Structure formats: structure tokens, C-alpha cells
Amino acid sequence: MKMIMAIIRIDKMNETKSALSEAGITSMTATGKVFGRGKGLWDAKVLEGAKNDQPEALALLGKEPRLRPQRVLNIAVSDENVQLTIDTIIEVNQTPAAGDGKIFVMSLGDAVRVRTGETGTTIL
């Protein structure tokens, strides 16, 4: 079993959810609006200047916020469905622009259905 954590553009949530459902991946948890950024780094002096409201530094940062609104999906899947889930998320969310998101795959030791106490991949 794996936990797939996907950080995606906020406006791609409904399309991603529909595509995953069509692929047979129907169970997921989604957070509300979260904020994040990629690897792009700003010069420390520019950030300090922006903190002090210096117009030159603010102009260098641009009009976009430094942290962008995004959604986080957590999807527990069997090992057999990992690649299908990843491919589906990429297909919906990939654009030519930076900021499409990230996908992380983590191992899960076990899963337990609270209502019945059932365990393992059968509850996925």
C-alpha cells in the first residue's frame, strides 16, 4: 500500500477528482486551500527590502504572492494502482508553465477501517 500526496493547482481540483474517479480511484482526502511555493529562490536582500516596503524590492517580487494557493490530495492506493494514480494526476495537471505541483509516494504499513476493524488493502 502507498499513500500518494499530490499538491495541485487549486483550479484543477474538480477535473482531477473526476479523472481519478473515471480511473477507478474513488477514495481520497482533500484539504482546503493551502499555500506553497516551488524551488524558485529570491535574493535575501530583495526579501528584506520587500519586508521594509521598499518600492524597488516590491517591484522585483512582482504582483504574484510568494506563496500560491493550492490543494493537497491524500490518496491511499494498493501497489497495483500507484502508477495509474500518478499518471492520471499528471495527465490532468501538467501544463507548460511552472507551478503544476508535486506528487509524493509514501509506503503505508497498514490501514484500518474504523467501523469494522478490517485491515489491509481490502479497505481501499
Helix-strand blueprint:
Elements: E1 2-9, H1 13-22, E2 29-30, E3 34-36, H2 44-51, H3 55-61, E4 68-77, H4 82-93, E5 101-107
Antiparallel strand pairs: 1-4, 1-5, 2-4, 3-4
Helix pairs in contact: 1-4, 2-3
Overall description:
The protein is an alpha+beta fold and 124 residues long. The protein is built from four helices and five strands; from the N terminus they run E-H-E-E-H-H-E-H-E. The chain has helices spanning 13-22, 44-51, 55-61, 82-93; strands at residues 2-9, 29-30, 34-36, 68-77, 101-107. It is elongated. The termini are close together.
Along the chain, the helix and strand elements come as EHEEHHEHE
| Broad structural category | alpha+beta
Report, as a whole number of angstroms, the end-to-end distance.
Answer: 9 Å
What's the total number of strands? Answer: 5
Overall mean confidence score, pLDDT: 88
Low-confidence runs (pLDDT<50, min 5 residues)? Answer: none
User: Helix share of residues?
Assistant: 25-40%
Q: What profile does the largest beta sheet have?
A: 5 strands, antiparallel
Rg, Cα atoms, Å: 19 Å
Rough outline: elongated
What fraction strand? 15-25%
